[in-house]
Amino acid sequence: MEGDALKDLDCQRTLDGRGSSNNGSGKAILIPACCLKAKASKPELGTKCHSTVVSGWFSETQPSSDKFGKQVFFNNPMWPGEAHSLKVENILFQEKSKYQEVLVFQSSAYGRVLVLDGILQLTEKDECAYQEMIAHLPLCSIKSPKNVLVVGGGDGGVLREICRHSSVELIDICEIDQMVIDVSKKFFPELAIGFEDPRVRLHVGDAIEFLKQAPEGKYDAIIVDSSDPVGPAQELVEKPFFKNIARALRPGGVLCTMAESMWLHTHLIDDIIYICREIFKGSVHYAWASVPTYPSGVIGFLLCSTEGPPVDFVHPINPIEKLRGALEFRRELKFYNTQIHEAAFALPSFVKREVTALR
Ligand code: SPD
Predict the structure, then answer these.
(1) Is 119 a pocket residue for ligand 1 (Cβ < 6 Å)?
(2) This prediction's pTM
(3) Residues 269-278: tens digit of each pLDDT
(4) Pick the catalytic residue: 8, 126, 155, 225?
């Protein structure tokens, strides 16, 4: 185990796959092992994630066997060397769907928790920060959004937030895993309430295929609420997927996608921004928010617009405070407001330095 732990911490010297087209240097650069692993198109042998509850505590680790066959726990490859733990009061649901292992438990500090393939997706206490930001950062950046597509988001929390916007007429959601929807309806009614809105049209299936079939220019906004890009979700950070998104957006339409933690994955963020800059000819920005139960306590969002009427993501043209009924719709906004929106784009100096594609 010691050897593997050390390997995880190692940085490997490698050539930047983008060569000189990114920063023009073409030099060998250091990519942390976590980012290399996150870039792998398939989960590595023996690293399939499973929910781990040991002695009454959940951590984002994965069980494996040492050379003597004894069960040992390794860190998740996306964030080697750390694991935030939550005390488990009670396991409420644990089953394998066709796609992943789904776990719901009652924690003592953060309420109910949803975990997919061993990775924490949300807790009742802090889900507001993620869902409100990923929905309102894009929707408050354009005037009167009407047609919105959600990729993933089967828990319904992002739908709940989009529904605050009375200008929205249609919300398509494409979620691959029916079990996530069912589990959310049973255990997370405050999120699944999003499905009850008559503007929502649910499509259970593969979003990659859904987007290929989507009419050109149909959506004002597309929100990608995915899991982390290891294994199946890897395709959601690749060029063909972003190309299909850009095609499905109207001119001056916006994309908001979950974009990992600046404390852990600046190389991954750099890669995604680099790809998106090539595809989205409007603007590309990175924002972040505090979500205490996500690795490193923060999560990032990438905001992109297609060529067309310019979009100023940093200064929302459609402030939530001015939208009739939005602050109170279904439940009070807990995290998002216009000040938080503007502040979310302020980046620490190390991020400005390391994410070269932002320059
Ligand atoms: N590292 C966890 C990232 C989880 C992103 N998806 C959350 C789903 C909430 N609707």
Answers:
(1) yes
(2) 0.86
(3) 999 999 999 9
(4) 225
